[in-house]
Design goal:
By secondary structure, this protein is an all-beta fold. It has strands at about 1-5, 10-15, 20-25, 35-40, 45-50, 60, 70-75, 80-85, 90-100, 110-115, 115-120. The N and C termini lie far apart (about 40 Å). The mean pLDDT is about 95.
Length: about 120
C-alpha cells in the first residue's frame, strides 16, 4: 500500500507564491513518476505537472507552464510543486499522485492519490 500526504496549501494574494510538498510512504516504486492534479469546485480534476523519478523529464499543463515548477528529493521521498505568479484561476484542491511509470496527463493512469491540499488565490 502507498500513502501520499500533501502539505503547503493556503491563502495567497494574486501574484504570490506557494510551495506544495508531497511525502510518499509504503510500498512505493522508484520507477514511478509523481505528479500533481488540481480540482476546482464543480470542475473535473485536471492535470498540472508530472516528473519522472529520476527528475530528468517533466511535463506541464499549458495553464501552469512558466509559472509552476515540479521537483523531487529522493532522499526525502518527497515531490514539490513551486507555484509562482499565482492567479485566482489557480484556486483548487491540489492532489499528489503516483502509481505509473509513464508521464501521464490523465487521472485514469494513476493508482494512488493523496488527500489534497487547498490553495486559494485572492484577487
Amino acid at each position: 500500500q502507498v500513502q501520499l500526504v500533501e502539505s503547503g496549501g493556503g491563502l495567497v494574494q494574486a501574484g504570490g507564491s506557494l510551495r506544495l510538498s508531497c511525502v510518499a510512504s509504503g510500498r512505493t516504486s522508484s520507477t514511478w513518476v509523481m505528479g500533481w492534479f488540481r480540482q476546482a469546485p464543480g470542475k473535473e480534476r485536471e492535470f498540472a505537472a508530472v516528473i519522472s523519478w529520476t527528475g530528468i523529464s517533466t511535463v506541464y499543463a499549458d495553464s501552469v507552464k512558466g509559472r509552476f515548477t515540479i521537483s523531487r528529493d529522493n532522499a526525502k521521498n518527497t515531490v514539490y510543486l513551486q507555484m509562482n505568479s499565482l492567479k485566482p484561476e489557480d484556486t483548487a484542491v491540489y492532489y499528489c499522485t503516483t502509481g505509473t511509470t509513464r508521464l501521464a496527463t490523465t487521472r485514469e493512469k494513476y493508482d494512488y492519490w493523496g488527500q489534497g491540499t487547498q490553495v486559494t488565490v485572492s484577487s
